[in-house]
Amino acid sequence: MTELDFVLLTVYFLCVTYVLYQMVTSFNDEFTIWLDQEYLNQQLTALNLKDSIGISFKFENRYEFDKLKKLQIRITNKSSEQALYVDWDYCALTDQYEPSRSRRVTRSVSGSPTDVFQRQAFSAIAPGKTLMEDLFAEDMLTRKDGGVPLQASETVLSFTKPNKKASAAKKKLFQKFMSGEELFKFELYLVLRFVGFGSTPGGDRVSIVCRLNVRKLDWTAGLPWNPKLP
Prior knowledge:
Blueprint (H helix, E strand, L loop, with lengths): L2 H25 L2 E6 L1 H10 L6 E6 L4 E2 L6 E7 L5 E4 L5 E4 L7 E5 L15 E3 L4 E8 L3 E3 L6 E3 L15 H11 L5 E12 L8 E13 L14
Antiparallel strand pairs: 1-3, 1-13, 2-4, 4-9, 5-8, 5-12, 6-7, 6-12, 7-9, 10-11, 12-13
């Protein structure tokens, strides 16, 4: 092998390595998310509401980092006598990535433009019925092309690559999440109240925290033969 052949072979392997690296990087941007059911059950049991309230979320098997635009929640009123109300203006989103920040929750109203500056009407859930809503964080929404309707331009997760000025703790959390060593956790604070027989006139208000866990998937999850849906 001549010196030129060696140089060409080296360049070839460097190009192949670079292409493979770019392929892995392009697939390395997906995560899975789920409700911490045990944490929720502990709260409902402590509040003696295990047989009165059911809460769940609808998620796909996996998401790309910029694709989780809303939380799809289901709240069931298991009571046979009392109506259950959801006070949306008292609800909030928080996360461990920005622990000092609280984000206002905005729900989607079918057939009506969303206005984040107005007070939100509460939702009533009749006994034995289920409410299904799409939830956003207020800071996600922007007006598209100057129009009135608000569009979700950001994701529910306030989780992005930290810049040079970010704290050491934030950089460490991001690195551990990206390497699969640690979960990213964020929480939805729901404020509910029962109105009816046995309650006060305005209803008995309770606060329930829905903890959502996010785990980064290995890059192989993005391969074409791994389906996104069940």
